[in-house]
Amino acid sequence: MNKMIVGALSALLFTGGALADAAANGGDGLWARLISGRDVPPISSERYRTECSGCHFAYQPGLLPADGWARIMGALDDHFGDDATLDPAVAKELSDYLTANAANDTRSIRSRAFAAYPLPADGIPRISKTAFFQRRHGVIPARLVKDNPQVKSFSQCDKCHRLAEQGQFHESSVIIPGA
């Protein structure tokens, strides 16, 4: 075999081993950086995390395009059946954060997939009703989510996606409670 081919294969095997080792040891190496580009950037606003996670999983901004976040933030008085009205200055801060970090303004492959499909023309968008979400979750039986008392809803990302808070939604990190 050609020495150049053998050298390239050796380098590939060494790199693959280093990547696997980095993933096995906390994922803070090159492997983690490669994988992170596929997933959604984690929340970087402590104010957003605090305000929103008091009632539900604080969704990463990269799960909806800017228009979707603007619609949600513009209707906090009827936030999916609840009044989530905030002080106007706080609401503006959160809205600015969400739209600046939305799915259409990120390099994340998963975020761009959420932004690639159009949102409904009217109404408040739900992440769990987006076309990309439906494409990825549509095959999951209701008994594992909606009828599962440990999960209850597709909106509870962190119930099944163990790394959801870090913005990692790859199916390899999924464990459905009670399944």
From the structure above, extract its key features.
single chain, 179 residues, mainly alpha, 2 domains, 43% helix
Account of the 3D structure:
This protein is mainly alpha-helical. It folds into 2 domains: 3-36; 46-173, no CATH class. It is built from 8 helices and no strands. The protein is globular, with a radius of gyration of 19 Å. Residues 4-36 have low confidence and may be disordered.
β-strand percent reads under 5%
Largest sheet: none
Which consecutive residue ranges, at least 5 long each, have pLDDT under 50? 4-36
The whole-number mean of residue pLDDT values reads 82
Q: Give the termini separation.
A: 49 Å
**Order of helices and strands, N to C?**
HHHHHHHH
- Percentage of helical residues? 40-55%
Structural class: mainly alpha
Count of runs of 4 or more consecutive helical residues: 8
Whole-number tally of structural domains = 2
Radius of gyration (Å): 19 Å
CA-based shape: globular
DSSP strand count: 0
Summed up:
This protein has 179 residues and is an all-alpha fold. The protein has helices at 3-24, 30-36, 46-53, 66-73, 88-100, 109-116, 131-137, 157-160. The protein is globular, with a radius of gyration of 19 Å.
